[in-house]
Structures are given as C-alpha cells and as structure tokens.
C-alpha cells in the first residue's frame, strides 16, 4: 500500500507475514532525474510482489533509480539482488554492514560460535522459518556510504548519518532544510529496536546509546521509521527508549541477585512483550533474538564493572561482582 507522506516521498508498506514486526516501510523518493528506494523487505514472494506493485503504481523506472539499505538485516536488504537484476543502478550500504553481509564465511562462523555459547545447538538449534526469506548467495556489489556523504534527489539534499547500535554499520539520511530523517530501525514507535550482541570487543549497547543521543540533538519534523508509525516527536521517543533500556539493565541485575546464570537463563526470566506468555512457547528464532539482547545488556554491565563474565567450556555465565552487591 503506497501513500505519499511528504512531497515526492512515498511509503510502500510491505507486509511481513508471520513476523512480529508485521510490516516494513519501504520509502521511495522521486524526482524527474533520479529516484531512491530505501529498504526492501524480505526476499520472499509476498514481499517482492508488494514492493514491485508499489513501484509500478508510482511508475518508477528502475533504470534511473538507486537503492539505499539502512542496515544489513534481511527485512531491509533481502530484495536488493532482485532489484539489481531488474535495473537498479547503484546500491548504497554502509561499508561496515555491506562487508558483514558479503563476508558470509566470517559472519556464519561468528553466529555459529555464538549459538554454541548460548546453547542453541542440537535439539535447541535455532530454526528461522521461510518467512525470513532467502539470503544472498553471491556478494552484492555496493557503493559504500560514510558519515557526511550527500545524496541529492530532486529538491532534497540528504546527509548520511552513522547510527550504529541496532547493527554495527546502521546508517540514516537527514535532510536539514525540511528536517526529515530516515532512520531505518534506529528509532521505532510502539516497539523497541533489538540491540543484540556483536562481539566481546565492543559494548554495542553503549554504542546504541551514543547514537540515540546524537540524533536527539537534530531538529526533526518527520522521523521516517522502517516499522510502524512515523514519529513526530523524536526526543520524546528517544527518552522512552533510553528509559526502557535502563529498566532492562535493572531487571537483569535483579535476576542476577538470585545467583549466576547463562544469557539464555536470564532471557527466560525477563519480561518480553510477545503473545507467547511462557518461554517454552517462544519460537526458537524469538528465543535467539531475546538471548542476544540479554547478552548485549550483560556485556554493558560487564563494561560498567557491575557484572563478571565467566567463560566456561560450553557456555557463558554471568554473576554480580561482589562490590556491586547491595
């Protein structure tokens, strides 16, 4: 379903069947000379059909159209190869996320080791359903974008803004004249972006906080999100997200006060706004997402000196530090 949300800016709302996200907002910015698509949907027949119908409805010529992917997740990048075959001229990614997407061997090795540490192996192995779509089988030829780069589409001049956190190389587009921001999954209304673990060498939650505070200072009239509603008061929403994560951190400290636990055990004890009331009823993919988010919060508490990480032969265990008790 395509709607004009600002002059020459259209939202193509693409359903994501059997997914808690429900849909993705793919944006299309038009001009006489060039067009720009922002994010695509999963590489599934349902998403492809909706995306192409929206482009056809607007009469988009893909030979004068580029694609920008805000981050590597498959609901945003999945249909990039399809659009490339249909005529898209340039695909923009951040250097970081584009590399992660293309370096499949390294990425798969990281997630395999993470699954082992979290205990998602054997009968507990994570099963991602067909609703997540197919991943690219060949490296994508992309043009890397960096902080401060500019994309001009018609009367709009967009500055690239690096907002890592949801992924290590998440980017957004800011238009200063009209005070517009295309933020991908960096900030969402009604739901909170998943901030998962991306390696012990970085405190990804602190990185996300820094990116939120960075965008807080921007003057924004319309925050075009990738899921759910367009946001008019970004500062209010950022404050809510920061408060949400502070409550998460306190929740985890409370759980650890009962004794040391693995990330999965901690995730199973946390509150999640899902239709499934019991951890045992969670689909394996949602258990994985929840455990990854618990782990990013645990590592933030490790960086703060409040929690100790214990690396065991087959898993991770976290305990409160003695000086953080009481």
UniProtKB/TrEMBL annotation:
Pfam families the UniProt entry points to: Lactamase_B
PANTHER family, A to Z: ENDORIBONUCLEASE LACTB2, METALLO-BETA-LACTAMASE SUPERFAMILY POTEIN
Keyword Secreted: no
Domain Metallo-beta-lactamase, first and last residues per copy: 23-227
CDD domains in the cross-refs: TTHA1429-like_MBL-fold
Classification via InterPro entries: Metallo-B-lactamas, RibonucZ/Hydroxyglut_hydro, Sec-metab_biosynth-thioest, WH-like_DNA-bd_sf
Domain of life: Bacteria
Protein keywords: Hydrolase
Entry-linked SUPFAM superfamilies: Metallo-hydrolase/oxidoreductase
Leader sequence residues: none
Protein's name according to its UniProt entry: Zn-dependent hydrolase, glyoxylase
Single GO term (MF): hydrolase activity
Keyword Hydrolase: yes
């Amino acid at each position: 379903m395509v709607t004009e949300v600002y002059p020459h800016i259209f939202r193509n709302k693409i359903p994501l069947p059997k997914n808690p996200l429900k849909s993705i907002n793919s944006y299309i910015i038009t001009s006489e000379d060039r067009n720009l698509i922002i994010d695509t949907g999963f590489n599934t027949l349902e998403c492809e059909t909706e995306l192409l119908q929206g482009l056809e409805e607007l009469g988009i010529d893909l030979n004068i159209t580029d694609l920008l992917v805000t981050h590597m997740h498959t609901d945003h990048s999945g249909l990039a190869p399809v659009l490339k075959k249909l005529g898209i001229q340039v695909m923009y990614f951040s250097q970081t996320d584009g590399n992660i997407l293309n370096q499949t061997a390294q990425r798969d090795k990281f997630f395999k080791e993470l699954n082992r540490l979290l205990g998602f192996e054997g009968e507990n192995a994570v099963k991602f359903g067909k609703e997540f779509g197919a991943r690219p089988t060949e490296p994508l030829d992309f043009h890397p974008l960096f902080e401060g780069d500019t994309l001009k589409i018609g009367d709009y001049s967009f500055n690239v803004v690096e907002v890592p956190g949801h992924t290590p190389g998440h980017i957004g587009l800011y238009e200063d004249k009209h005070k517009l921001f295309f933020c991908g999954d960096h900030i969402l209304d009604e739901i909170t972006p998943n901030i998962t673990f991306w390696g012990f060498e970085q405190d990804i939650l602190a990185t996300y906080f820094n990116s939120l505070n960075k965008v807080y200072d921007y003057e924004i009239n319309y925050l075009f999100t990738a899921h759910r509603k367009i946001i008019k008061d970004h500062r209010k929403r950022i404050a809510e997200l920061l408060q949400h994560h502070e409550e998460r951190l306190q929740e985890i400290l409370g759980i650890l006060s009962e004794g040391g636990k693995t990330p999965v055990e901690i995730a199973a004890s946390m509150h999640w706004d899902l239709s499934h009331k019991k951890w045992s009823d969670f689909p394996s993919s949602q258990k994985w997402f929840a455990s990854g988010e618990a782990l990013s919060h645990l590592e933030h508490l490790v960086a703060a000196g409040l929690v100790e990480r214990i690396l065991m032969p087959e898993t991770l265990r976290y305990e409160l530090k003695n000086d953080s008790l009481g």
